[in-house]
Amino acid sequence: MTKLLRERMQFGGDMRLMRIFYLICLCLFGSNLLASGFRLTEQSLNGTALNSAYIAGAYGADSTYYNPANMGLGEYGDKHELEIDASIIYIPAFEFDAVSMDKGMNLTCTPTSVLANAACDQIRGQYGGKNGAIVDGYAKKTLQPVPKIFYKTRTYEILGLKTNFGLNFTTPSGLSMDWGGEAGAFLDDVMIMMMEFNPVVSFKLSDQVAIGGGFRFLYSAGEFGNTLHVPIGYTTIQGTDVPVIGFIGSEVTAKGTTKVVQTSNAAANGYGYNLALTIRPFKSSDLLVAVTYRSNIALEMKGSLSATSYIDMGAMASGTIGMDADLTLGADLPPILNIAIAKRFGKVLAEFVMEKTYYGKARIFEFAYANQKFTNNAGGKICAAWLGSKCLGWIDTGSYINPDEMLGAADYSAVAYGNGWKDATAYRLGLTYQHSPKLKIMGSFAYDKTPAPQGQFGIPDANAYAFGLGARYELWDGKADVGVAYSLALKDNRKSFLRSKDGLGQLQLLTFGAKYRF
């Protein structure tokens, strides 16, 4: 039996192991997974400790996510490697305030004749609204476990190239909010989760160049329950034709906001790819330069929505309008480019990463509706003319409320969560210290600019300053290792439209992990 035939037989057995592993992963990931915060960059134990300054120096099973070109590099290229990590995401509860978005409704009325003056006098006015008052809100604490799985094969010789295969299951993005109070009602109960399956392959072209890449399969699902004050500008002309006299009526313009309470759900699959390149520029140096790219994944999430709009227009109309509709939610994962450089200094490996996320090209929770069905429970009446204290005739002004026209007049774009988002750049520095043959200690710092505009309604976010620390310890003569890592991100929210009463915002990650090599 030739060496190549033995390799192929071994590879067939390894593929059977991968299929079994895939089924195990499906069982583990059948539970409810979500990440707090729109994007979670720290996807493994090393990624947490190094705050994702882990591209050029990535190694082992989790390199399948951070830099698949590196799968064939490192000291365990002749081993399969499986890593299972579990992150605990913690965001402390906090309180905040904001300027109320409830502007109420201002009605103006222009009569078509003097006979309609009395009716217009009963319509004109300001109804409701907080006049820029400060309102309070609060966010409940988030405490959520999130598992991650990474696997890479040993190195194979295929067509003269050293080749590795791998896969990873991660939760690259998500959002979980449970907020309350008037200022927090727009994120009252919002959850969106994303789970990614990413098979990859790498080729070592020479001792100085390695490439890698793979396909990305994403499943996303969300449930939303929130309250919005939606701007609206609505004009209607109502009246009646009277013999000899002609048309008697008025033009009514409503301008302000309407309170909308809505619940919805949606889900979708998405597809993309990732590419990686690692170069050792100088044969005599251990300097590494790496570039990775993750493509955009466009998600067209389909589901349903139920909404109730509250109408307050004084005597002319009050009550509610219900709407049930089919929902389409655009929630892309934007392209991500990483450029990294790593260099060893004695026992210390230092790495610097510049990461750019192209949020400016992505859709951030863009809603669209179809097949609307309305339930009109709004009504009202005004007096057409008075004789002393006696009304000579009533006008049914509930007919002034047309749900289709009002939906078209509502400016939902003004309360879109992703308004004004732009490309964001992060800078990451990570240090790995080989304390002993068995013990590695890691530390990091990162500055992550927010893509969200400050002082504007949307998903509240701010620039983050992150600090990381972690360690790994080898067991069983290098067949396994275990570790723990911690990351703390502090967010300066002084320019946010939500003003925290508890100082800097926090996002804490605690990750436990274990590797096994065979």
Map the helices and strands.
Layout: H1 3-28, H2 45-49, H3 63-66, E1 81-91, E2 94-99, E3 105-111, H4 117-123, E4 125-127, E5 134-139, E6 142-152, E7 156-158, E8 161-170, E9 174-177, E10 179-180, E11 189-204, E12 209-242, E13 246-279, E14 288-294, E15 300-312, E16 318-330, E17 336-345, E18 348-357, E19 366-376, E20 381-387, E21 390-396, H5 403-409, E22 424-434, E23 439-448, E24 464-475, E25 480-491, E26 499-500, E27 505-517
Sum this structure up briefly.
The protein is mainly beta. Helix content is 9%, strand content 55%.
Secondary-structure-based class equals: mainly beta
- N- to C-terminal distance: 24 Å
Mean pLDDT: 85
For the record, the CATH class of the largest domain is Mainly Beta
Spatial shape: elongated
Helix content: under 10%
Could you describe the largest sheet, including whether it forms a barrel? 14 strands, antiparallel, barrel
Bin the strand percentage.
over 45%
- Overall domain count: 2
Low-confidence stretches: 1-37
> What Rg do the Cα atoms give?
30 Å
Assign the CATH topology of the largest domain. Porin
CATH superfamily of the largest domain: Outer membrane protein transport protein (OMPP1/FadL/TodX)
Number of strands: 27
Q: Name the quaternary structure.
A: single chain
Number of helices: 5
Sequence of strands across the biggest β-sheet: 1-6-8-11-12-13-14-17-18-22-23-24-25-27
The CATH level-2 architecture of the largest domain is identified as Beta Barrel
